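Translate structure to sequence.
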C-alpha cells in the first residue's frame, strides 16, 4: 500500500491527541456533507422549476413556427401547403392568423389577440390539454375559445347564444377612425364562446381562438394569407434539414423558430437565475471549506513530532505533504458522497411524496437530473482538492525543525 495513503487513512479514522482537533475534524466533515447536499438540492429545485415553467410551452407552442421576416402576412397557397406536408419529418401543419382586437361583451371591454386556426391545429398542439371546460372550435365561424383570464375579466358565458361577444379590428386603410360612427372604422364579428382554455396567466389573458376563415373575414385577408405556419414534427425528425427545406419553399425570407427559440426570454431568465444561485452556493462552499483547511493545519501542528520522526526515517517532504493532501481529499470525498446521497434521497422523496408545497395542491417542483449529480460532485471535488493542497503546503522545513523543541 502507498506509504502516504496508508498514513493518511490512519490519521483520518483514528482519534487525535487533542479533543479540540477531533471536534474540528467532525465539524469540517459535517459542513462538507451539508454543503454538498444543499448544492444538489438547490440545483435539483431549479431544474424542477425550469421544467415546471416551460412544460406549458409543449401544450401551446408548436415544434416549429414559420413567420415572415418582413411584414405581417405570408402567402400560403394550397400548393405550398401540400409541399410542406410532403416534406419528410413533418406530421401536420396549420396556417394561423394573429391580430390584436378590441372585445366588447355585456358592457365590458378588453383587448386581446385573436388567433385564427385551421381544423388541423388540434393535431399541432394538445388542445384537449389546455381546454379548461366547454368544447373546442367546430365548423361555425361564430365560435371562439377564450382564455380563462379574459373570460373572468369579461364575465364571459359559454354557449350563451342570447348574448354575443363582439370582436372588432380597425378596417384596413389610412383613413382616421371615425369617432361619430365606429361601424365605419371597424370590422366586427359577433361570436359565442364554446370553450375556455387555460395555459398560464400570460396566455390566458392574451388569446382568443377562432376559425381561420372567421379571422380572414374579419381582417379582410384572402384565402392564401396567414400570419404564420405552425408545424408538428415526427419523432426523430432532422430539424436542421427541415429548416433548409422549408426556407426553400418560400419566395420571401421567413423566420423559423423551434419551441426553445419561441420562449428564449424565459429560458434565458431561468438559466441566469440557475447560474446565479449556483455561484452563490459555490461561494458558500468556498467559505465553508476554510474549515477543512483549518482542520488539516491543526492536524499538521498536532502531528509535527510524528512528521519529524518520519522524515528522520527517510520520508521526503513531498510525501509528508501528500499525507495531508490525501487525508483532506478523503474527508471531502466521503463527505461529498454522503451529502450527495442525502440530497438524492430528499429530491426523490419530494418527487414521490410531495413533502414541500408552494401552495395547497401545488408541490414544489424538483427534477432528478444526472447533470446536477456531476455538477455537485465536480464542484465539491475541485474545491476540496484545492483546499487540501493549500493546507498541505503548510508542511515545510521550518515547521519540522520546530518539532525538536
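Result:
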Amino acid at each position: 500500500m502507498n506509504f502516504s495513503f496508508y498514513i493518511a487513512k490512519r490519521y483520518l479514522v483514528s482519534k487525535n491527541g487533542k479533543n479540540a482537533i477531533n471536534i474540528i475534524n467532525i465539524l469540517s466533515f459535517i459542513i462538507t456533507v451539508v454543503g454538498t447536499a444543499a448544492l444538489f438540492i438547490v440545483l435539483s429545485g431549479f431544474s424542477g422549476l425550469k421544467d415546471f415553467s416551460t412544460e406549458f410551452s409543449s401544450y401551446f407552442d408548436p415544434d416549429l413556427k414559420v413567420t415572415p421576416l418582413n411584414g405581417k402576412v405570408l402567402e400560403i397557397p394550397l400548393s405550398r401547403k401540400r409541399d410542406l406536408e410532403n416534406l419528410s419529418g413533418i406530421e401536420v401543419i396549420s396556417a394561423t392568423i394573429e391580430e390584436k382586437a378590441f372585445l366588447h361583451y355585456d358592457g365590458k371591454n378588453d383587448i386581446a389577440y385573436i388567433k385564427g386556426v385551421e381544423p388541423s391545429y388540434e393535431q399541432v398542439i394538445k388542445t384537449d390539454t389546455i381546454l379548461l371546460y366547454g368544447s373546442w372550435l367546430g365548423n361555425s365561424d361564430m365560435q371562439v375559445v377564450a382564455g380563462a383570464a379574459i373570460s373572468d375579466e369579461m364575465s364571459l358565458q359559454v354557449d350563451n347564444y342570447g348574448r354575443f361577444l363582439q370582436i372588432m379590428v380597425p378596417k384596413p386603410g389610412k383613413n382616421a377612425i371615425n369617432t361619430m360612427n365606429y361601424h365605419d372604422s371597424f370590422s366586427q364579428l359577433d361570436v359565442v364562446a364554446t370553450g375556455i382554455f387555460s395555459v398560464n396567466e400570460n396566455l390566458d389573458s392574451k388569446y382568443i381562438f377562432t376559425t381561420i376563415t372567421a379571422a380572414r373575414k374579419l381582417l379582410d385577408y384572402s384565402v392564401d394569407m396567414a400570419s404564420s405556419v405552425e408545424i408538428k414534427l415526427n419523432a426523430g425528425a432532422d430539424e436542421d434539414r427541415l429548416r433548409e427545406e422549408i426556407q426553400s419553399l418560400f419566395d420571401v425570407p421567413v423566420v423559423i423558430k423551434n419551441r426553445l427559440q419561441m420562449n428564449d426570454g424565459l429560458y434565458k431568465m431561468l438559466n441566469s437565475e440557475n447560474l446565479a444561485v449556483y455561484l452563490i452556493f459555490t461561494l458558500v462552499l468556498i467559505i465553508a471549506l476554510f474549515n477543512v483547511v483549518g482542520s488539516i493545519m491543526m492536524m499538521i501542528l498536532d502531528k509535527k513530532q510524528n512528521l519529524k520522526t518520519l522524515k528522520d526515517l527517510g520520508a521526503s517532504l513531498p510525501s509528508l505533504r501528500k499525507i495531508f493532501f490525501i487525508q483532506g481529499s478523503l474527508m471531502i470525498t466521503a463527505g461529498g458522497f454522503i451529502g450527495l446521497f442525502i440530497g438524492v434521497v430528499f429530491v426523490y422523496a419530494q418527487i414521490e411524496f410531495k413533502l414541500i408545497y408552494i401552495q395547497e395542491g401545488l408541490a414544489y417542483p424538483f427534477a432528478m437530473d444526472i447533470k446536477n449529480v456531476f455538477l455537485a460532485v465536480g464542484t465539491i471535488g475541485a474545491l476540496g482538492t484545492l483546499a487540501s493542497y493549500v493546507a498541505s503546503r503548510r508542511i515545510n522545513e521550518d515547521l519540522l525543525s520546530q518539532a525538536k523543541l
